[in-house]
Amino acid sequence: VSFQLTDLTRGTMTEFHQKLRQQHEDSMHRELETLLNTANKAEAETSRKDFEGFKKLFHRFLQVKGPSIEWAKINRPPEDSIQPYDRIRAKGLPENISSCLNKLAVVKLNGGLGTSMGCKGPKSLISVRNENTFLDLTVKQIEHLNTTYNANVPLVLMNSFNTDEDTKKILQKYKHHQVHIHTFNQSRYPRVNKESLLPIAKSMGVSGENAEAWYPPGHGDIYASFHNSGLLDRLISDGKEYVFVSNIDNLGATVDLFILQHLMSQPADRRCEFIMEVTDKTRADVKGGTLIQYEDHLRLLEIAQVPKPHVDEFKSVTKFKIFNTNNLWISLPAIKRLQEQNAMDLEIIVNPKTLDGGLNVIQLETAVGAAIKSFNNALGVNVPRSRFLPVKTSSDLLLVMSNLYSLDAGSLTMSKKREFPTTPHVKLGSSFTKVQDFLTRFENIPDMLELDHLTVSGDVTFGKNVSLKGTVIIIANHGDRIDIPAGAVLENKIVSGNLRILDH
């Protein structure tokens, strides 16, 4: 009897959960309709498309419980599914590389703000090198490609409602450059109260009490918003076949002609629809997503999908040796096909946030690379570390502003004068977090050609023409200040205590 009872209880529980899910979904749909009624006509049309996408995501969020990955089913990708870059490079380039370039568009993910670096406005407008912003460098790179190969590679920026207005104002200055620039907007999704699972927005407005009510739903949204904007169809009708997608703050993500040629030279029945550039993991990259073989497909495994007991294993450099750089090459017709069949099944990333007032909300997001499993003949390419040069912090900024890199036609390359190709490990303390503060602490950027490791903590400033070599650790305790004098050479030194240099 007891056996039957538990079965009944289980059935009733499942039924109960289904009803509960249905209730949540109905309430959500009602709230979204109410919100749409507060919008003007033009806005309502865009927002309705956004909300359709959000409803699908919310529906899946209610269905899914726990990590979507069964750890035991994870396998290393087969040998031929991740190609070494050298093998692709060895094939060389054809005479007509410009006809390949004419079938390419470059997409930069430009939805992020510079807040983590203490800057207002879009992150892409922060100056990184010789007064050039991320956006300036990107435009220069593509312009250089177009002029060198007499090609027409357009630049496409995926903006968010946070960055769109400011970015469009700046685009005026590239009017006379040899590069066509298009923009489209990422969706705008409602943040959801963690307890009630309802939107916290009171209306469709983005200011005042609604300032924190919305979010751009991660870069996995590129497929839907690219398709919804009409730009995808327009590029296909212009004869474009592939897009090269990357984060605008990755200064290593330049158009690589060898990878492009590899894509274009595949036989028609085995066209590769998706290439993900991966690179070898170092201790600094333990959180990066990795490629796995799962149920006969290449899949991107992100740290958020890993069951708690396996997180340390995921972070190990031995089992998972590579990580995703988020430099992706994707077939445009394939995006169109999958979007129209509603066949992109992107894992949901649930991102919990606590707002300023203490309210707990959740953001449902997806990642662009997670779609790899839906594309045919997808491939990983293990590229050199130089193709992954993200600027996330002021420590990264110090590296790219220094003489470790030389700038040529918008591209940064490791200086020939550096003896070994690894990037130094730089950790600047909290006094350097904001770009403004960072800039006031360096009279000019130190020589770092022979640096391996730099740690700076506390109130520290650097005079002109300082040279840092080997391992340098500078620690000013609370209340102390250290001014590194102009022209100082620090090689394998630890500096602590108090040193003030004042103008007399």
From TrEMBL:
GO biological process: glycogen biosynthetic process; UDP-alpha-D-glucose metabolic process
This protein's pathway: Glycan biosynthesis; glycogen biosynthesis
The keyword Signal is assigned to this record: no
Binding-site residues for UTP, renumbered to this chain: K123, Q186, G218, D249, K392
Pfam family, one: UDPGP
Catalytic reaction equation(s): alpha-D-glucose 1-phosphate + UTP + H(+) = UDP-alpha-D-glucose + diphosphate
Keyword presence, Nucleotidyltransferase: yes
InterPro entries to which the protein is assigned, alphabetical: Nucleotide-diphossugar_trans, UDPGP_fam, UDPGP_trans
Keywords: Nucleotidyltransferase, Transferase
Enzyme class label: transferase
Binding locations of substrate: H219
EC annotation from Swiss-Prot or TrEMBL: 2.7.7.9
CDD domains: UGPase_euk
GO molecular function: UTP:glucose-1-phosphate uridylyltransferase activity
Similarity comment text for this entry: Belongs to the UDPGP type 1 family.
Subunit note: Homooctamer.
Role according to the record: UTP--glucose-1-phosphate uridylyltransferase catalyzing the conversion of glucose-1-phosphate into UDP-glucose, a crucial precursor for the production of glycogen.
Protein known as: UTP--glucose-1-phosphate uridylyltransferase
The organism of origin for this protein: Salarias fasciatus (Jewelled blenny)
